[in-house]
Amino acid sequence: MPILRIENLKKYYGKGAQTVKALDNVSMNVEKGEFVAIVGTSGSGKSTLLHMLGGLDRATEGKVYVNGHDIFQMSDEKLTIFRRRSVGFVFQSYNLVPILNVLANIVLPIELDGGQIDQEYLNLIITSLGLQEKTRNLPAELSGGQQQRVAIARALATKPSIILADEPTGNLDSKTSQEVLILLKQLSVKFDQTIVMITHNEAIAQMADRIIRIEDGRIASGLTQAPGESRL
Amino acid sequence: MKGQERLPHTRLVNLGVAAAFIILVLAYVTSIILLDTTGSSLLGLSLLFILCILILGGAWSWSLRHQLTSFMEKVETLVDNATLGREPNYNYEETLLSSIEHKLMRYIEIARVNGQNLETEKNKIKELISDISHQTKTPLSNIMIYSQLLEENLVHDEHALPLVLQVKKQSEKLDWLIQSLVKLSRLETGMISLHMVSSPVILAVSEAVSQIFIQAESSCITISISCEAHITAHHDSKWTTEVLFNLLENAVKYTEAGGSIHITAEANEMFVRLDIADTGRGISQEELPQIFKRFYRGNNVRDIDGVGIGLFLAREIITAQGGHMKAASVPGQGTVFSIFLPLC
């Protein structure tokens, strides 16, 4: 069963002649553990699609199923809890809290959920992302790549099953982008997580299992998985 | 789910009880005031009594809530511990907690055993592959020896010689394939443990280059290296050498005479990046995502021998070392393979 299922998703802005069809009848599936990259020009609707997947916005029409649950049927309160527990977000801007140190930033979503911190898992994430010597630093003392790594650690802290990333390397130089993406991919394999990532960088194509191309609110290509990826 | 649904209900009951309590108390007080038969001493006593009851009731309710929360917290840690496979906290006690823990442990145990069974099945298949590869080795090397002997005997037979050469070439290909499969299955089953240490990448680079140098020279291909000696990575030098050799061999194979291969190393924030750039025929954009797949062979390289397992093996080795591998190419101008190895 796919972890994400989208059925005839539509998102229209405005009314009448001025209607902007941000998403026009999009249907797709994402399997568990898949790394999907969404590419497209700006204004093609890729961010809108990601926002729908994460329950950040509601669709005009259509359904999004996460693990078999229709997320648009949930109340706003439930949707918030769903986001906090099942989805990890990574954005272009790192959105770190400037007055909290690295460690406090990472555990923030766990504390918001009132859960207990699994120290072993936390240490594993921190060392995998090479942040072990920076845990007491403030975000402002870190480089862009390090800040984005903190943001990734924060997204992973609640052990989400899906990571949604919106141009996660948009503010980074190409070398650092590459490294951050390698880490993101390695962690997703290690913790069996599904990644849906928006990017404008076609070079990232090789890292993803599948590339979905969006044009004018419609999926132009990439609906099916690339064949031949079977392991012996 | 059920508990969550029931929660507002219990809150309602609590509120109802409290309201009834207060109403009763108020009714009692008013009735005493209204009756006013036995004077004010009884009134004072009653008030005191009622106050005591109220405090008691409040304390009782608070303690109940506290107990419930602490119980839930215990269950939560219990679930956390159980999912992480830690030792049970309440082993065989006559309590509800212990019983919940026991059931949970059983459930996890069943799931774990299922997973293990799958793993054994998988390992059996891998072992089978390893065995097949191993057992075919000896007959194969015999075939190779005999075909060499045949070649020596048939030097002057112009009809048979090309055929024998074909036999020789094909068995060499088969030999390489089987060797790669053995390595792969050993890597995947964890039979080879990677010996990860911090060591300069220049060692691996120079070792790999020295292995390919003669082959490159005979094809008139120059190899240049720009790698500073202090760049170290956390890797298994032996296996990294193997990967580099593999990539260099490919580069030599697909580069025309007079071309060049350039190796660059640079240390970044998290990884050491090794680039192997050639001036060969290149790979088309459509084919790039496919090249690391097992047994994939490019469409425009059908004329050159190969089985399509080298890059797959290379990527497996690098991934096992906690690194990453990618390729970029411009058809007709050359290909750059990049290896990322963890910094330390």
UniProtKB/TrEMBL annotation, chain A:
Residues 4-232 form the ABC transporter domain. Gene3D superfamilies: P-loop containing nucleotide triphosphate hydrolases. One of its GO terms (molecular function) is ATP binding. InterPro entries: AAA+_ATPase, ABC_transporter-like_ATP-bd, ABC_transporter-like_CS, MacB-like_ATP-bd, P-loop_NTPase. Keywords: ATP-binding, Nucleotide-binding, Transport. Pfam families: ABC_tran. It comes from the Bacteria. Belongs to the ABC transporter superfamily. This is ATP-binding cassette domain-containing protein. It comes from Paenibacillus phytohabitans.
UniProtKB/TrEMBL annotation, chain B:
It comes from the Bacteria. Keywords: ATP-binding, Kinase, Membrane, Nucleotide-binding, Phosphoprotein, Transferase, Transmembrane, Transmembrane helix, Two-component regulatory system. The keyword Cell division does not apply. Residues 131-344 form the Histidine kinase domain. InterPro entries: BphY/WalK/GraS-like, HATPase_C_sf, HATPase_dom, His_kinase_dom, HisK_dim/P_dom, HisK_dim/P_sf, Sig_transdc_His_kin-like_C. It holds the Pfam family HATPase_c. Its main location: membrane. The keyword Plastid does not apply. One of its GO terms (molecular function) is kinase activity. It is an enzyme of class 2 (transferase). It catalyses: ATP + protein L-histidine = ADP + protein N-phospho-L-histidine. It is found in: Membrane. The chain crosses the membrane at residues 12-35, 41-62. Its EC number is 2.7.13.3. PROSITE patterns: HIS_KIN. This is histidine kinase.
